[in-house]
Every structure is written in structure tokens, then in C-alpha cells.
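Example with several molecule types.
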Amino acid sequence: MKNMNPFWRGMLALLVFSLAGYGVGLGLDVLVDGKVNFSGPVPGVFALFFGFTAFFLGVFGYRGITRGLVWQVVGTLIGGLFVALIRLVMGLPAFGDFFFTEPSWVFGGLTGVLSFIVGVGVVDDWIKWARGLDTPEHHEEHYSDWRKYFGVSVDHKVIGVQYTVTALLLIAVGGLFALIFRTELAASKLQFLTDQTQLFGQNGPQLFNTLMSLHGMIMIVSILLGISGIINYVVPLLLGAQDMAFPRLNAFSYWIAVPAAVLLLSSLFLGGFDTGWTGYPPLSARAPVGMQMFFLGVFVAGWSSVLSALNVLVTVVRMRSVGMTAMKMPIFVWASVATSLIALTATQFIGLSFQLVMFQRLFGMGFFDAAKGGNPILFQHLFWFYSHPAVYVFVLPGLGVISELLPVFVRKPLFGYRWVAMSSLGIALVGFLVWAHHMFTSGMNEYLRVPFMYSTLLVAVPTGVKFFSWVATIWKGRISTPTPMLFALGAIVVFLLGGLTGPPNATVSTDLHLHDTYFIVGHFHDTIFGGFVFPFFAALYYWFPKATGRRMNETLGKIHFWLMTPSFLFLTLGMMYVGLIGMRRRIVDYDPALLIDGWHLALTVSAFLIAISVLVFFYNFFYSIKNGEKAEGNLWHSRSPEWQVPSPMPVHNYDRPFEVVGEPYDYGLNDAGYVKFIESAGGKHG
Amino acid sequence: MAHSQDKHSALGQGVTIFIYLAILTLLEYFVAVSFNATSLLVVMAVSKAALVMYYYMHIYKLGADDGADPHSYAYKTGTNRFGLWLFLLSDGFVFAGLLATRINLLGFTRPHQLSQILGLGVTAVLLISSFFMNRGETAMKYGDRKGFMLNTAITFLLGLGFFIGVIFVEWRLAAAEGLTASFGNPADGPMGAVFYIMTGMHAFHVLTGLIFLYVVWNNARKGVYTAEKHWGVEAAAVYWHFVDLVWIFFYPALYLIGTAV
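Resulting C-alpha cells for the full complex:
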């Protein structure tokens, strides 16, 4: 056992403990229900908890994340049993269909998250401060190898990598869910998710609904973690800072997302839910317990996003290098500020709307229950007040990455720097005024429709500024196309398609037809791939050498790009086509008379091609960490400060401070450069 | 001595602001019981909020010059202060969302089951606690540890009184009058749900504020803070005033605005 590769040791533990958890769940089921149910929800959720925890136990031992997960399991059980006991005293049934009753699961979920936080050790220093004890500013790392990523670290680079890898894992999970229900859709009628299918207390179509809903939210959480990953790693380096403004809060923001992901996944086993990621009542007020775990998971993940945004804003305002005035900041920093402004404020509204539904379910408070005088439309207002700006949270950093990378690979200044910087803020600002365009068919007051239509169309102005800048930057440049640049160019094309298909949805007259069809699905996958996924890959290929000192394989990178891009374009354009013909979104089956069976088959094939290309990426990513070609210098000939020092980045970032002496993107001009290191400054921590 | 004069004028300012706030609160009450003037109530609430934010929460310190040395305590405190205000902004959106919910669901009506005297009473208790918090913070600023501990203890007790008044007295009385969250008279509409979620969310923040107050009081007892270095005290004070700030809007929203039905 000791000499085994840690990964395989983890996999072995995962297998053994999943089975053990399954057995425990089966036993508990018998205890409560009196009958054996092999495909029931309780064995599933115990197998998930046990297996997940055991994987990290095998890899890493009882430390860091493993301790957090063990504490989460124990905390959940204690919280759940506590409520069960109270219910027993009150004369209510102590246990329910999913072993615990709904209040038990909610309270247990909450205590589980808190236990994780304490168990993983991310609040140790705060507890010391509260007791009046002082702690050192920087902690020495316990490990210098891969193991530092499995425990609490306050180094922004470590946290950036933790965020990024977690985001990639969640992308894999969300993508897997998509492949499952995409396969079901390959032909009309029910294939394998039939009425007879029984798994985790759900039949086939219910399982379809759960997977479809979870695909949405898991991808959203993974995007939030992904942008936090890039921002965390890059922004302090671009600013010349030692770390983020609040390193402990930074670690906290990351670690609270881990139990949130566990809660989200557990909803699959606890009866699932069938509302889609939007969770509209009254449907969400009636869905199984899984709905509550979903709400709770999103609420906790939301705090991760809020606190991380807070940290970014303070870091940018307070930790810039000498001479880095607002208009000399790298454009990615501007994008991070804009995205953080939205995440900091609007996120509270989705948290609140989900909380109100949770209370409605738990205590019968009738906020959205029309029978009690509540208003279901109010939920949609609260929900979209975050969830529309949220798409700008997703895409603004990606658009920033495009603007950041283009000048490097065309060797020309970024066209209209000031306008691009302001356009990010403009999108963020206008983004707050457009939410009700999701509600044209909801039955809200009709006079609201036209103003929201025009405010939505207004978003095209600052976005157009960005496109104009990109085209003008590329114009007559000396273009080279290594993998990061390919993805940046792909992002522009895909995002353009997403942008052009937006106005038909924003225009009331056309939206009445397009609403809730696959046209919408195609549209937003274009915006999110163009605004996040492509730039995310570009950023990973671009900054990978900075983090590891090695580069990813170019050939595999190009295979990844040339396999993914055409498949993806076909997928989304095909989705739009079937949507126009009448394919509704979020349903397990469709009418063969629509004559779109062939289309759906082709869409499923292209979805699998995308999955294969991402597998190529995963192989490239994990293989290159140890075996990639060495790249320790300024690989891309960038002017940016982080490339002026050797890779991988030293532990405490720059050993001497730098001063901003020029413009960030004056490529191809004869000048002194963007930053100059200050030689004579005393001390390492200048 | 200039030092004690400064301290005196700082404490005097706290008294003056408290008198303004108290008069405005009483005016609110009498305006509400005499005639239906929502816009006037909004103006008065905003005025109170502005006074609290400027004189008790010292929002102007965000623009202060913290010096050039990023490793000094002053600069780090400035960074912390900015972070705290961003947190309050974010938290403020929770309460703004609750206010929006209240406006959407209740409009120009309010629950008739609430006791006006009790409402004014708990509001006064919270306002007075903010006054003592300001005295405590001012004392610490001038190095008066004893004065800080005494005033913070009073603040804590008043805060506890508010919490008990809302959760254990007002909730019980309202429920006895028939204002329930769920299973009561359906004709009540969503009144009960809105009342309990707004007061409940606010009370949760009062509770966390009490914990912070205890932490800084206990640390002051151990001698952790000095006149120059007491960020923890400032943070707890600003947070406590924020809790009061929220109530400045929630009190009229629940007790005063619109007609009681």
C-alpha cells in the first residue's frame, strides 16, 4: 500500500468505501423502511459521501481536504440526527423517505458545511485572532510538492491552481451529465431513461430532469471557480503584489466551495429535482428533498463568489505597484474589477430568492405561494436580478483574456485601451438593468417589456466596442497562432455568434416564439463558450508555463482546438435550428413528426466529439505538468510583468518590486517597456 | 490639554448626533400615527441613515490618506476598512432584496397585529446601544480601555435586550394576535411571512454583532488594543452601527408605512 501511486491508492479507497457506504445506506434503509431497496437514494448518497472522502484519504491521508470531508459527513449526520431528535420530542416522524426528513437534511447540510470549514482548518487563524492571539503574516508551507494543493494554503498561486483544477473536475462532471441526457435525446421516444428505469428514487424522465438541471448549475459553479482560478493566479502578479489583500479570506472563499459542490452533487441522490437550474416556484416548492440540497449548495457557493470578488476589488484598489495608475492597469485587471462588482452585490439576490423558497418549503411561509397571497413572479425578479448579470460575471474575465492575449500574438498595441477598459464597466452597469428580458412570457406587467427590451439591446454597444477593438488590433498585425492565440481567435468567432443571436431573444415580438426553445440553448452556449470556455482554455495554455515551468504540448493543443471548434459550432447552430422548428428545451422526448431525429443524432455525435477533444486537453494538462517541454523564460515575448521573471513563479512572487514606466500594450514600438524592476530596494517584501 | 479636549468634543458630537436621531425617530412615530405620509417617512429614514453613516460609521475614513508604506498598521487598517465596507455593501443587498420583497407583497399595507409601543421601544433600545457603541469606540481611540469596556458592555446588554424584545416578546405577541408565518388565517396573506423573515434576518445579524462585541470586549480585557492599533474595535463598532442602519429602514417598513390591515 505504502509504495503505491497515491492516485491509484485513492481510487482503490474510493471503490472500497463506496461499497461500504452503499452497504451502510442499505442497512439504514432497512432499519427505517423495513425493506431492501438496491436502487434507492440512501445507499447512493452514503456511497457518494464515503467514496469521495476515501479517495482523498487514499491520496493524501487524514489531513487537509480529507479531514474537512470527514468532518462534513460527521457534521451532516449530527445535524440531521439533532433535528430528528427534536422531531421525535415534538411527536413528528423522525425519519423520512430519504432516511432523514427534509428539515434534517437542510440543517444537517448546513452543519456539514460549517464542520467542513472547521475540519479543513481554514478558520484556525481567525479563531486565534478572536481569542486575542497573534499569528504570523505568512505561514510556511507544510509541503512544497503536489501535496500543498490538498490542504489549506494562503498563497494566491496555490489557491488559483486549486480553483482551476476544481473547476476542471466540475466541468468533467457537468459534461458527463450532458452526455448522458444528450444520448437520450439522440432519437425521439424514450431510449434508456424510460418509465421503468429506477435509480435513486427516480424514474428515467425524472433522472433526465435532474441531470439536465444539475448540468446547468454544476457548470455555473465550475465557471465561477474557473474565473476565480485565473483571477487569483494572475491578478496579483499583474499588479506586482505579494498576494491578495486578504489571503485567509481567499483560502476561505475557495474551501467553502468544496462542501458546496458536495451538497450540489448530493441532490442527485436525494430524489433529484426537476426545475432546471432556475428553480422557479411553484414547481421548486414541491420538488423532492434534492431541491433543498441544490438551494443550499448554490447559496454556499454564492458566498465563495461574493468573498472572492470582495478580495479582488480590495486587492486592485490597494495593492498596485508604484506608477500603475488606473489607465495603466492591464486590461484583464479592469475586466476582473467589472466582474467582481457584479458578483459582490447581485449574488445576494439569488441567495435570497433561494432562501425564501427554502423557508417556504420548511415553514410554509407563503412568499411565492399564490394561494397564501404570495407572488411567484417576485421570485423571478429576485432570481434574474442576479442571474442575468451573472452571465457578465462569466464572460467579462474571458473577454479580458482575449484583449490581454491578442496584442501579444499580433505584436501590436491594443486598439482603444481606454474604451475597452470602460466597456467592461459599461457592460457591468447596463447588466443590472436588463433582468426582466427573461420574463417576457411570465405574465409580469406588460409595460415592463419594452423598457427591458431596449436596455438589453443597449448591451450591444459596449460589447461592440470590444469587437471593434479586437478587429482593429488584429488588423495588419504580425499574427502568430500558437494554441492560446487559436483559442482567443476561436473565442471571438463563437462569442460573435452568441452575440448576434441575442437580439432576437431580447426583442419581445421574436422572443414570444423563441422563448423556452432550443434556440435559447444554442444562443447561451455560444455566449458562454465564446465568453468563458474558449478564453479559459486560452488562459490555461498561456499561463500554464508560468505555473509549472513547462508548456503544454502544441500538437495536442491544436488537435484539441480543431476538434472542438467545428464540433461546437455545429452543435450550437444545430440547436438553434431545431429550436426554430419547435424543439422545446428541458424535455426528455420530442415529437417524431418534427422530423428532427436526424439532427438530434448529429448533435449528439458532435457533443461526443467535444468531449473527446476535452479529454485530449485533460491528458495534455496532467501529462505536461511533469513531462512537458521546459519553458522557463518569456515564452510568448510578453511585456507583462509576470513574464519578466523566470517560471515557475517563485513562492513570494517578485523578489524586488517594479515600477510602471510605460504603457502595457505598446508592442512593436521602441520604448523602455511596461515595467522596470527597482534594483536598490531593501528587503524581499518590498 | 488638547488631547482631552479632542476626546471631549468627539464624545460631545456623539451626543449631538444621538439627539438628532432620537428626535427624528420620535417625529417618524408621530407622523405615522397622525397622518399617512410615506414619502416624509422615507426622507426621515434616509436622513437618519446619512447621520449614522457619516458620524457613527465614519464612512469618510475610506478616503483618508493612509501613508505610503504598505506595511504600516495604518495602511493595512485602510485596506481592512475598505474590505469591511464592501462586505456591508454586499450584505446591504440582502436587506434591499427583503425590502423589495416587502414592497412587492404588501404594498401600502402593514400588519395591524404589531404593538406600536413595543416597536418604538426596541427601536429606541437599538438606537441607544449605537450611542454607547460610539462612546466606546471613541474611548478606545483615546486609549481609554476602561471606558471602552464599560460602554461596550452597555451596548452588549442593550443589544441583547433588543434581540430578546424582538424574538421572545414581539414574535410571541404577534403570533398570539394571529400574525403567523404559515398556518394562520389565509386572509392575512403573506404579512406574517414577510414580518418574520425581515425581523428574523435582522435578528440574526444582531446576534452575530453581539458575538463580535463580546470578542472585542474580551480582547480589550486582555489588553490587545491600543489607541493606535484597534482595528478589531473599529470593525465591530462599524458592524454594530450597520445593524442599526438596517433597522432604520426596517422599522418604518414594518411598523409605520401604509395602513394597518
